[in-house]
């Protein structure tokens, strides 16, 4: 396998000269022609990753993922990757595993690696993280959450909560339980829940609340405890994964959805189509968000003006798991 050092020896120049040529630096025409001829003769393929780290403008985009085992994250990443491949950008992926501290570490890592831009798919946030992001000199785009002064792409989470609540009320349900997550996640834990709760309250009713995690297993285990005693005829879960966990618990307890209670989620994950019954949900354009994110960070890397905030629409998708109250 031909190396950069081999090219330099055959051309009779320093390795740094070959590196400058590969990075479009200053090299004489004669030397440029000699190096190019040797590259074509040997079939040498430059290490673009290493080149990008040394180049003034990196074509590497760092992506901070909240976790790997998330259908929504996977769809966003697919959109990012499809456009990155089309436009010859390389991705450097880091996983925060729903930890704010790891999120901060990953941002620092990408900064040290001199990536051309950072896409942060944010979950939990605190003031230190917001400060770290606002002080970055690297173009940075936030997905799913908002930081003042930093370009962000977000979902209509409050509106999504309202849509699901309106659906439950239209079906005649008044005994309602919302199964949500921690307020550390502003989009899912606060906005989505508030949209739901506010709508139920405006209709003259009160929804009960139970906090769980994003884990389908934990949602399932907790549901085994509260389903036998709940009076709720409608349970709204903060994500499709949580809804699937609740559905699994209901099956184990010989409870029927939607006969014993209606059930809905958020996200539009493909898994919710293949449960029985299929789960009513809010479809989120995760893949489209990924496409828009890559195009947006490219604009930022090219120093083109971009809007600080753009909101992605969503829509109610009624399936088999919800029905009118008897």
From TrEMBL:
Positions of the HTH lacI-type domain: 2-55
SUPFAM superfamilies in alphabetical order: lambda repressor-like DNA-binding domains, Periplasmic binding protein-like I
GO terms assigned for molecular function: DNA-binding transcription factor activity; transcription cis-regulatory region binding
SMART domains according to UniProt: HTH_LACI
Source species taxonomy: Bacteria, Bacillati, Bacillota, Bacilli, Lactobacillales
UniProt superkingdom: Bacteria
Protein name: LacI family transcriptional regulator
Signal peptide as annotated in the record: none
Keywords: DNA-binding, Transcription, Transcription regulation
């Amino acid at each position: 396998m031909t190396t950069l050092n081999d090219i330099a020896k055959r051309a009779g120049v320093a390795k740094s000269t070959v590196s400058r040529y590969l990075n479009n630096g200053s090299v004489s025409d004669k030397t440029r022609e000699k190096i190019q001829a040797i590259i074509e003769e040997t079939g040498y393929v430059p290490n673009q990753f290493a080149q990008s780290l040394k180049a003034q403008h990196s074509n590497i985009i760092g992506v901070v993922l909240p976790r790997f085992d998330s259908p929504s994250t996977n769809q966003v990443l697919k959109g990012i990757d499809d456009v990155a491949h089309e436009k010859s950008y390389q991705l450097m992926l880091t996983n925060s595993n729903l930890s704010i501290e790891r999120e901060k570490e990953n941002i620092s890592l990408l900064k040290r690696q001199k990536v051309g831009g950072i896409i942060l798919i944010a979950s939990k946030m605190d003031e230190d993280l917001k400060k770290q992001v606002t002080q970055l000199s690297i173009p940075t785009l936030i997905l799913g959450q908002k930081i003042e002064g930093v370009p962000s792409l977000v979902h209509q989470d409050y509106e999504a909560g309202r849509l699901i609540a309106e659906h439950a009320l239209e079906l005649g349900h008044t005994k309602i339980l919302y199964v949500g997550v921690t307020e550390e996640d502003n989009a899912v834990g606060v906005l989505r829940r508030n949209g739901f709760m506010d709508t139920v309250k405006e209709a003259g009713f009160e929804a009960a609340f139970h906090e769980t995690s994003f884990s389908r297993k934990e949602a399932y285990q907790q549901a085994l405890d509260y389903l036998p005693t709940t009076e709720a005829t409608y349970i709204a879960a903060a994500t499709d994964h949580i809804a699937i966990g609740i559905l699994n618990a209901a099956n184990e307890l010989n409870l029927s959805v939607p006969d014993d209670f209606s059930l809905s989620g958020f996200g539009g994950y493909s898994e919710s189509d293949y449960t029985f019954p299929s789960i009513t949900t809010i479809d989120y354009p995760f893949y489209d968000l990924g496409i828009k994110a890559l195009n947006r960070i490219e604009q930022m890397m090219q120093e083109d003006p971009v809007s600080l905030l753009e909101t992605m629409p969503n829509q109610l998708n009624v399936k088999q798991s919800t029905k009118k109250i008897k």
